[in-house]
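Hi, here's the filled form for the chain we discussed.

Project: internal
Contact: R.S.
Residues: 272
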Amino acid sequence: MPSFDFACVGDNCIDRFGAPLHQMLVGGNALNVAVQLARHGEKSAYFGAVGRDIDGDVTIKTLNQNNVSNVHTQRLDAPTAYTNLSFTPAGDRIIDFEEFGASGLYRPSCADLDILKKMRHVHIGWLKDGGTTKRFLRGHNVFVSQDLGVNAAPIDKDPQDLSLAFDSAGDDKSVARTRAIDLIKKGAKCAIVSCGAKGSVGFDGHDWAETNSTPVNVVDTTGAGDSFAAGVIAALHKGKNLQQSLEQGRDWAALTCGHPGGFPQKMASQTP
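And the returned structure, exactly as it came back:
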């Protein structure tokens, strides 16, 4: 059996921040969730792909430094994914360009799937596989969560049979509630929809939960949603109810807003 309890499957990237940060940091939804779980004492593993390049080396090293198992991280003949980020005068983050590289080519191997079907919980980030992985895992009764907000293709956003569906809805909680109901109607067992600075709502088909955000001196919001998801996942698996789980996710997200990138790390390199 695997020596870890949580597996995170899908994207990683190098976040290339422009002014005023001028930093390059390891990130990506699935990788950020894996790291946040490990940083809070959970045994986690990352299943994804990096290139055979320096950025790939940095990503593997960063996983090691954060005690995330990377035994099942593939190395492909493609560049490690990266995202160019800039900021408006008001401090809002803008995605200028994304190179999906190795992450865009990644699919779990048959051996990977054989490991994943034994997991306690599998979280899926950005993964362009037509929903194949989550359907396979649900067929083996694995507790599966997915961040639908980071996926683009409708087939990759299908919430059918997800144990836990994460999504986002701007800063309007009425829109978030409508979205949560829609996700449940489409087959999710539980839906959690974040509303940026307004907090989040959760719905399991019977009961609602809701939180506001924690006031914080924001340095960077990159990865805050991923930290939120990790906090919710960890809380639910410790037997906390939906309200308590949203509150833990809120608190983990607030910590992430206090530093650049999705988790504290040494600067991978500096942008020009």
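Let me know if anything looks off before we file it.
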